[in-house]
Every structure is written in C-alpha cells, then in structure tokens.
C-alpha cells in the first residue's frame, strides 16, 4: 500500500515544476536577459549560452544537490559541515533573500517598472506605500497555507503569467522590429560568452534553489510521495522542468531584446525595453499588460520566498508557528519597500556576497559526495578553505567609504592575488584544494575503519 503512495502523476509533477519555475522567475529574470540581448547585438548567441550556464545551470545544480543528498532543506545540507554553521548559514540565507533584501524589492520593482507611469510624480511616494501594503497583503494571502502553494503558484499565478508573457514575446518574435545583426556593445564585443556568464551569475538564483528546496519537498510529501528516494527523484525532475522552461524564456527575451535595436535606442535597463515593446505592439493597453506581467512575476516569487521562510524558520524555531513567521516575512517587506530600502540593501549586499560562495561550495560538494564513501571532512575542509575568500568577497560589497577602513585595503589587496578574484570567483581554487584535502582525510578514515 505504501508503494502506491510513492508515485506521482505526471500532470502533478508538471505542476510542481511550474510552481518551482514561478518561484524562481521574478521581475529581474525578465529584465536581465532582455537588456543583455540589446547590448549583445549580433553576439547574442554566445551571450545566451553564457547566461544559461549560470542563470539556469547553477540553480539546477542546487535543486539536483538537494535531491541526490535526500536532505530535508538547506539546514540539513549545511549540517554536513556542522550544526553551528548550519544554523548561522540557514538563518542568514533566509533573512537576506527574504525580509531584508529580495522580498522588499519585489514590491519596489513592480511599482517602478509596471505602475509608476500611471501615477503623477508628486503622488508616487503615497502610491508606493499603498501599493506595497496591497502587494504584500496579496503575498500573505497566497502564502498563508503552504499546503496550497502548488494550487496558487503552480496552477493559477504562474500559468496566468506565462500566458500574458507569451502574448508579448510571441508578438515580438513573429513581428520583429529588426534582425540580429546589430553591433555589440561593451565587453559583449570581445567576450560575449563570459559577459553573459557573469550576467547569469548575478541573478543569484543558486541561493534561491537552496531556499526553495524545502517547498518542493514538502509539496511532494503533500501529494503522497513518502519514500526519500522518490522524493529525491521527483525533486530533480521538477527542477529540470522548471529550468527548461526558464531557459526557453531567457533565450526568447534575449532575442527580442536584440531585435528591439531596429526601432529603439540603447536603453538604461531591461524594464525600459519591455515597456517600449509593450507600447509599440499594443498601444495604451501595452502599459497595462506589462504592469500585470511584472506584478505577477514578483507576486509569485514573493509567495515562494515567504512560504520558504515561514516553513524553515518554524522548523528551526518551532516556538513560533508558521503563521507568525509568514506574517513577519510579508509584513516587514511592506515597510522596508518604502522606508530605508537603500540602507537595507547596503547592509544586505555584503552578506549576500558572502553567502553565495558558501552556497556554491555546499552545492558542488554535495554533488561530488555521490562518488565519495564518506563526506564529513570533505564538507568541513572545503568550507574552511573557501571561507576566507568568501569573506574577502563580502568586503568588496561594502560601501567605498568603509573599504578604506583599517586593515580592509590590505585584505582586499591579498584577495587580488587569488585567481578569478576580480570576477567574483576567488573562492573556487581554495575551495577545491580544501575539498581535495577533506576527501583525502575521509578516504584515510574509511580505510582505517575497514
């Protein structure tokens, strides 16, 4: 009887994949590839490949790592280093990509890109406040029952978003404003693949892949999938579905970004490009169409972030219910979206620069652990060796005035000696060395036990 409950219907698996895509794909995921396409010009093909390697590849690795290690969430995965590290990393990760940074910006971006053009300049502060409260009230409504997130995000919000985005994208692709032969700009001239690679890295979706893992796992359990092996396999399948969908949309957005050069000058950002395209093809209705697309993109991502935050914090600190944590995760951003957001970002960005390398070390070590007989010291040594470069990466995110404080300039100078440091990958070589040391220690220990 139990075996019958470990299988999931193909249709439900597709909806889980769509749900995961919906949580990943926010307004930034619309704006980045569109802007990249306009700048890359005739080199858009190489730029798209680079963007997909990091913008799709890294999040997929995160989902796969959660699946193959059969962990119950990021805390369980980080516990392979040690429990104190797991607590600090998990709490920092969820607060930074949750109430302190990513979630507040969802309302701000929705307003700036989609709604602001409808509001008189002297009333924008008031309307942003009203919009933020309404936006996060909607986020809380959809996130208040985590058992229904697949229904809300996978079956309602994301399909609606995809239909509306599809209308805009297909119209632009079938009635192109120009070709793909426009001159590339900036580093896209000589290094389109590398530049696209960095652009995809900047989406920070690898962090979200760890954060959203718990939502996917709990959703599968709610569908009756109980066996760890089946949960792992279906988590990976859902990840593949979401990333294929994301990759197709990324490529399409980059192409219409390039084609827009046939009618519009180089824009300041991808939001401007999408606004120009929407108005060109649909007139006054185009502005409303884009406003709905952007708001839906941010809304479903907000639901995913609030749900993941609430579930994880409740499991770590069960004294407070999921309802309390979810209300906090939706309430604080409604405030931060209006008051002191620049200061919050200034504080959070250095922490984000620290967390990203640590997350990638966890993900890559988890993937490699499939081939290793034991992992205790492999995780520990990889993290120990990668921690110092990650701290240096954090220092680069400090405001320029603080970077000149006491010994920080000396530390940053040492960091420049590391390979790939300027590209933000100075942690890679030290982490690989730590991984090899840890694997050797684990191997020696396994032989002694044998």
SSE blueprint and pairings:
Elements: H1 10-24, H2 27-40, H3 44-55, H4 57-68, H5 74-78, H6 83-100, H7 102-115, H8 124-143, H9 149-174, H10 192-201, H11 205-222, H12 228-259, H13 270-282, H14 284-316, H15 322-336, H16 341-368, H17 376-396, H18 408-415, H19 428-449
Salient structural properties:
450 residues; Branched-chain amino acid transport system carrier protein; 19 helices; amino-acid transport; 0% strand; Amino acid/polyamine transporter I; 75% helix; membrane; globular; transmembrane; 2 domains; mainly alpha; disordered N terminus
What does this structure look like?
The protein is mainly α. It has helices at 10-24, 27-40, 44-55, 57-68, 74-78, 83-100, 102-115, 124-143, 149-174, 192-201, 205-222, 228-259, 270-282, 284-316, 322-336, 341-368, 376-396, 408-415, 428-449. The protein folds into two domains: 3-339, Amino acid/polyamine transporter I (Up-down Bundle); 349-450, no CATH class. It is globular, with a radius of gyration of 22 Å. The two termini are 38 Å apart.
A few lines on this structure:
By secondary structure, this protein is mainly α. It has helices spanning 10-24, 27-40, 44-55, 57-68, 74-78, 83-100, 102-115, 124-143, 149-174, 192-201, 205-222, 228-259, 270-282, 284-316, 322-336, 341-368, 376-396, 408-415, 428-449. The chain contains 19 helices and no strands.
């Amino acid at each position: 009887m139990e075996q019958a409950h470990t299988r999931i219907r193909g249709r439900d698996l597709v909806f889980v994949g769509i749900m995961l895509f919906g949580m990943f794909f926010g307004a930034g995921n619309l704006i980045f590839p569109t802007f990249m396409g306009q700048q890359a010009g005739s080199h858009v093909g190489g730029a798209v490949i680079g963007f997909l390697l990091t913008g799709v590849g890294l999040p997929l690795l995160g989902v796969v790592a959660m699946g193959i290690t059969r962990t119950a969430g990021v805390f369980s995965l980080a516990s392979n280093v040690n429990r104190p590290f797991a607590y600090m990393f998990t709490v920092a990760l969820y607060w930074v990509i949750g109430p302190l940074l990513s979630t507040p910006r969802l309302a701000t971006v929705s307003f700036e890109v989609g709604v602001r053009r409808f509001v008189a300049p002297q009333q924008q502060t008031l309307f942003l406040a009203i919009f933020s409260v309404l936006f996060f009230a909607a986020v809380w409504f959809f996130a208040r029952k985590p058992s229904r997130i697949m229904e809300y995000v996978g079956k309602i919000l994301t399909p609606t978003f995809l239909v509306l985005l599809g209308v805009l994208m297909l119209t632009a692709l079938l009635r192109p404003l120009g070709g793909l032969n426009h001159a590339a700009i900036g580093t896209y001239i000589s290094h389109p693949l590398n530049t696209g690679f960095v652009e995809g890295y900047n989406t920070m979706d690898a962090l979200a892949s760890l954060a959203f893992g718990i939502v996917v796992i709990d959703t599968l359990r709610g569908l009756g999938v109980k066996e760890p092996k089946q949960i792992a396999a279906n988590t990976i399948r859902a990840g593949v579905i979401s990333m294929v969908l994301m990759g197709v949309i990324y490529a399409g957005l980059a192409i219409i970004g390039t084609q827009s050069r046939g009618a519009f000058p180089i824009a300041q950002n991808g939001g401007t490009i999408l606004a120009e395209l929407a108005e060109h093809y649909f007139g006054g209705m185009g502005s409303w169409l884009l406003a709905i697309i952007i708001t839906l993109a941010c809304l479903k991502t907000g639901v995913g972030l609030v749900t993941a935050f609430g579930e994880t914090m409740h499991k770590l600190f069960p004294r407070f219910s999921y309802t309390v944590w979810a209300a906090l995760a939706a309430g604080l951003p409604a405030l931060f979206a209006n008051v002191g957001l620049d200061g919050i970002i200034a504080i959070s960005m250095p922490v984000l620069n620290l967390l990203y390398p640590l997350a990638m070390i966890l993900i890559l070590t988890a993937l490699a652990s499939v081939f290793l007989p034991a992992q205790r010291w492999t995780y520990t040594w990889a993290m120990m060796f990668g921690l110092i470069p990650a701290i240096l990466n954090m220092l680069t995110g400090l405001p320029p005035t603080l970077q000149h404080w006491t010994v920080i300039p000396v530390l940053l100078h040492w960091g420049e000696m590391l390979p790939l440091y300027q590209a933000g990958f100075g942690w890679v070589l030290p982490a690989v060395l730590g991984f090899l040391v840890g694997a050797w220690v684990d191997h020696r220990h396994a032989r002694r036990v044998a």
